């Protein structure tokens, strides 16, 4: 099924419109990470080494929130790799990040979609960990639902169609797989079929998702191997799972 609008055109059209004057160096302390980012920060060490050797080849994408405050829309791995290099004194503390700015007047739902689009260009949903998958589907469902209700247009056209069909098309998965992921996302949020998630429940889910991401990162940590360090790691993971 082909819809009247295309998600992937978001970045291409935006790139065509964006002028060179919208690309600038921004002090790293003025950029804040996007709390809506549900994508795992993988291979940061390897990326940091690449940036150390070759420099930042692709600018991050930001949206200005205040005079000296920008929210990160795309490039979370690059941003964290740069922070790692600074912490290791491989880059100066006053390092300025090459960034492209999106239109400050851009609808927030379109901005949230761009966060997904930039990540999905290089990563396959089905290859992601289950928790990451569910969090992404849940956020996508929320964006689609609000876009329909608010009449938000994507590339000049309204968002239409069943959520299952839209998700299946965007992520390149079957309708069966899309429905299964939707059901899991609803179950995780405590939503019955056809019911609405209250704002309180929606807000409460974010810390849970963040804790699970921290747990995943802890499991990847490499310790020296002493019994004491392994015990600390074990207790930290047990604490997060409570």
UniProtKB/TrEMBL annotation:
Keyword check for Nucleotide-binding, yes or no: no
Look up keyword Hydrolase and say if it applies.
Answer: no
Q: Where is the ParB-like N-terminal domain?
A: 24-116
GO terms for biological process?
chromosome segregation
Q: Which UniProt keywords apply?
A: Plasmid
Q: Where is the composition biased (Basic and acidic residues)?
A: 186-195
Name of the protein: Partition protein B
UniProt superkingdom: Bacteria
- Which SUPFAM superfamilies does the protein's record reference? ParB/Sulfiredoxin (SSF110849)
Q: Where is this region: Disordered?
A: 1-24, 186-207
An example Gene Ontology cellular component term from the record?
A: chromosome
Checking Pfam families in the record gives: ParB_N
């Amino acid at each position: 099924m082909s819809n009247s609008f295309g998600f992937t055109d978001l970045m291409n059209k935006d790139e065509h419109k964006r002028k060179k004057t919208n690309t600038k160096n921004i002090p790293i302390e003025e950029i804040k990470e996007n709390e809506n980012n549900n994508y795992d920060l993988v291979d940061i060490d390897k990326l940091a080494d690449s940036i150390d050797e070759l420099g930042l080849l692709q600018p991050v994408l930001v949206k200005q929130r205040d005079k000296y405050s920008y929210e990160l829309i795309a490039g979370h791995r690059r941003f964290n790799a740069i922070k790692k290099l600074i912490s290791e004194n491989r880059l100066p503390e006053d390092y300025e990040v090459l960034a492209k700015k999106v239109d400050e007047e851009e609808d927030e739902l379109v901005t949230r979609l761009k966060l997904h689009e930039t990540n999905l260009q290089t990563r396959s949903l089905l290859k992601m960990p289950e928790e990451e998958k569910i969090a992404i589907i849940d956020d996508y469902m929320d964006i689609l639902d609000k876009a329909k209700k608010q009449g938000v247009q994507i590339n000049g056209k309204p968002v239409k169609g069943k959520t299952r069909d839209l998700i299946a098309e965007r992520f390149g998965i079957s309708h069966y797989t899309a429905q299964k992921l939707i059901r899991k996302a609803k179950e995780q949020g405590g939503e019955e079929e056809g019911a609405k998630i209250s704002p309180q429940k929606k807000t409460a889910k974010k810390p849970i998702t963040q804790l699970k991401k921290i747990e995943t990162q802890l499991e990847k940590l490499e310790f020296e191997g002493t019994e004491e360090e392994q015990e600390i790691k074990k207790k930290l993971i047990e604490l997060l799972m409570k």
